Amino acid sequence: MNDRPLVLVVDDEPEILETVRRRLRVEGVEADTAQDPHDAVVRMAEAQYPIAICDIKMPGMTGIQLLREIKRVNPLCNVIMMTGYSFMAHVVDCLGSGVVDYFVKPFRDIGGIVEAVSEAREQVAR
Question: pLDDT at position 1, please?
Fold first, then answer.
């Protein structure tokens, strides 16, 4: 198994970061975390993570802006978006901008995110 983290999780809520990171680890997927979207862009440029899970609403940069920055520095990154807001406009913006999946917080079950990461991971392996 490759010890290099495959996923960068970006959210301004530390509890969400830890929940997602722990669950992915249980599934055998290593993840790094970032609370600041600007830091996430720098880290993405350095590490070229194949998968990113990002919150849509954060201080300093929206999820859509972050998505664009991630794609600028790593066009092959598979981005999964999560949000506490389920407005249809957000869903349309995300999916129209190249997001591979979209989840609404709070999570009853994080299994959907784990499944989306597994699917993205298979695409990366091809």
Answer: 41
